[in-house]
Amino acid sequence: MSETQTDVDNIFLNPGSEDLTEATYRQLLEMIQQGRIPTNMPLQERALAAALGVSRTPLREAFSRLVGGGFATRVGRGQLIVKEPTLREYLEILQLRILLEGESAFAAATRMPTAQAQSVISALTAHRQGRDFSASENHRIDNLVHQTIAAHCGNAMLENMIFDLRIKARTFDQNGTVARFEPGCQEHIALMERIHAGDARGAREAMVFHLSQARAGIVARFTAI
């Protein structure tokens, strides 16, 4: 029996193996997005397997998916790292996000229940009033806004593309730009208010403005160095 046939048979005989690999892969993506896996540092297989409570087999399969998805790369001696994008790569990612998330916001404005939109607005208002603009809290709020909008765009492929691009963007300058945290929150509120009002065009414009401001802030900061 060929090795390929054996792999196929294993999938059918052990259907849970694919689920475990998928779950491990998604957990790794979350860790990257949260900054819990630093960029440009070798991934520690044993430590990650213990942290995720999995064996090395699904972890290695998940590693392969990270490489295939462009989230990680292999360097000297086969070590795997989450590579930080260059400034140019980051700006290209942002340009794609502007195009895709603008359309996502447009669609979500006619699909998201008003109660859901109001819930996000309330969370944003509490965040602004609490004035906790730490990197971790900013990431949590940013995820809440962008993932909620993408989840209501009515297009699973678009939602997944946005998810992947946001993770790749997060690997650039992982702690973010502190000066952008408070204005970013205000932009998020304006965006969610447009969605709450069912204003599709306004939601698209607010999303494009928000991401364009993020891009301008990064360009200004790095050109000043």
TrEMBL record:
This is DNA-binding transcriptional repressor LldR. It comes from the Bacteria. Keywords: DNA-binding, Transcription, Transcription regulation. GO terms for molecular function: DNA binding; DNA-binding transcription factor activity. InterPro entries: GntR_C, TF_FadR/GntR_C, Tscrpt_reg_HTH_GntR, WH-like_DNA-bd_sf, WH_DNA-bd_sf. It comes from Raoultella terrigena. PANTHER family: GLUCONATE OPERON TRANSCRIPTIONAL REPRESSOR (PTHR43537:SF24), TRANSCRIPTIONAL REGULATOR, GNTR FAMILY (PTHR43537). Residues 18-84 form the HTH gntR-type domain. It holds the Pfam family FCD. The keyword Signal does not apply.
